[in-house]
Amino acid sequence: MKTVIASIGLASVVLVSATASAHAWGCRATSPTGSYGWSSGYRTRRAAVRRALYECAIRTPRGYYCRIRWCRRYR
């Protein structure tokens, strides 16, 4: 009985993990200076956009801006 319960628990953890990673977002941001930032593996598009813009901003000189070039949902 304990083996069956452990197997069901393990199967549910694997299923939840596969579902979470199956719908991950990734984005790329660039600036006019050639700096870039990207993100991947985020659960929401908003989180992926914020991370890509942050990564681009820390590489971009003051006075320039970063823009999102694309976002993609990975399956």
Overview of this protein structure:
With 75 residues, this protein is α+β, with helices and mostly antiparallel strands. Helix content is 45%, strand content 29%. It starts with a helix and ends with a strand.
List keywords for this structure.
75 residues; alpha+beta; three-stranded antiparallel β-sheet; 2 helices
- Give the ordered list of helices and strands: HEEHE
Roughly how much helix do the residues carry, as a percent range? 40-55%
Distance between the termini: 35 Å
User: How many alpha or pi helices?
Assistant: 2
**Quaternary structure of the protein:** single chain
Give the structure's gist in a few sentences.
The chain is of the alpha+beta class and 75 residues long.
Question: In terms of topology, how is this protein built?
Answer:
Elements: H1 2-22, E1 24-30, E2 36-42, H2 45-57, E3 67-74
Antiparallel strand pairs: 1-2, 1-3
